[in-house]
Design goal:
The protein is an alpha/beta fold. The chain contains eleven helices and seven strands.
Length: 346
């Protein structure tokens, strides 16, 4: 076992934000938190089935990275813990909720469920049930951006791909192979490790010879940084630097975000493996509460404004549930639809 890591190596030079930016970040984090809380309620009421992996506690990572991207232009590859990533890129809550209910109006037409959210209009490359499965997909998308720009002469092809994955994925072959190719080909991609300390029930420090994941980037000559994943402004600052480097043709970056999930691995997990002392220590660093406090201290928002955002978001989520419940089930006659690309389905 190694000593607890409490001092990330990355220190943003500036975390200054405008009032408008602050409220956007707060609303996005709140949407993620309250949406996942509602998912838990719906799951236990029998409205959702299968495995449902919630994101509570990690909101600063999704918001910090995705809100630094160009919405609708840059690409995002997710994991099986993908609901909040989908919300951050702009997929409407009602479409995400309908997908979780298995309805035709879901963003994946009810075919994907919790672990396979996808949205072409929002450049969401998908959630992936297999660990590390999205890393090669994201690497390929970054390659096509570079190819279109340098080979096909498309000067508008300067998109950046953000690839999310957990600490458990960094022991898989796809991780090492894709980091090697990304550096070798100088691809416009940002690899984001959401290190929440646990790969299902396996403690991260017990599963890898090098627990400090960001240091693995050095094997490929890649930029690697470690950041406090419970601080949305720190994540945002690291993401902005990495995205700017990628867009300028300066290559990929590996960002390790130190974060924590507040619930079990999935809603079927009794969460009896993690020590209570560890959970209490991390929950005391709640990223949403921390950022709300920052906004108030910096006079970027009032408590009334934050409360109004909370109410607005909760209303959106309640409407999403109503929409999902009233939406139609997929028609059996369409069983073979959406398997291959079809112009009528675009």
């Amino acid at each position: 076992m190694v000593a607890e890591r409490t001092l990330p190596t990355f220190r943003p030079q500036s975390t200054q934000i405008t009032r408008e930016q602050g409220l956007i970040l707060y609303e996005d984090m709140t949407l993620g938190r309250l949406f996942e809380d509602k998912c838990a309620e719906m799951y236990y009421r029998g409205k959702m089935f299968g495995f449902v992996h919630l994101y509570n506690g990690q909101e600063a990572v999704s918001t910090g990275v995705i809100k630094a991207l160009r919405q609708g232009e840059d690409y995002v590859s997710s994991t099986y813990r993908d609901h909040v990533h989908a919300l951050s890129v702009g997929v409407p809550p009602k479409e995400v909720m309908a997908e979780l209910f298995g309805k035709e109006t879901g963003c994946s037409k009810g075919r994907g469920g919790s672990m396979h959210l996808f949205s072409a209009p929002h450049r969401l490359l998908g959630g992936y049930a297999f660990v590390a499965e999205g890393i090669p997909v994201a690497t390929g998308v970054a390659f096509q951006t570079k190819y279109r720009r340098e080979v096909m002469g498309n000067e508008n092809a300067d998109q950046v791909t953000a690839c999310f994955f957990g600490d458990g994925a960094t022991n898989n072959g796809q991780f090492f192979e894709c980091l090697n190719m990304a550096t070798l080909w100088n691809l416009p991609i940002v690899f984001v490790v959401e290190n929440n300390k646990w790969a299902i029930g396996m403690a991260h420090d017990r599963a890898t010879a090098q627990p400090e994941i960001y240091k693995k980037a050095s094997a490929f000559g890649m930029e690697g940084v470690e950041v406090d994943g419970m601080d949305v402004l720190a994540v945002r600052a690291a993401a902005e630097q990495a995205i700017a480097r990628a867009r300028a043709g300066e290559g990929p970056t590996l960002i390790e975000t130190l974060t924590y999930r507040f619930r079990g691995h999935s809603l079927a997990d009794p969460d009896e493996v993690r020590p209570d002392e560890e959970k209490d220590a991390w929950m005391a660093r709640d990223p949403l509460k921390k950022f709300a406090g920052y906004l108030l201290e910096q006079n970027l928002a009032t408590q009334q404004e934050l409360s109004e955002i909370d109410e607005k978001v909760q209303h959106q989520i309640d409407e999403a549930v109503t929409y999902a419940e009233s939406s139609p089930e997929p028609d059996p006659k369409d069983l073979h639809r959406y398997i291959f690309a079809d112009e009528d389905d675009e």
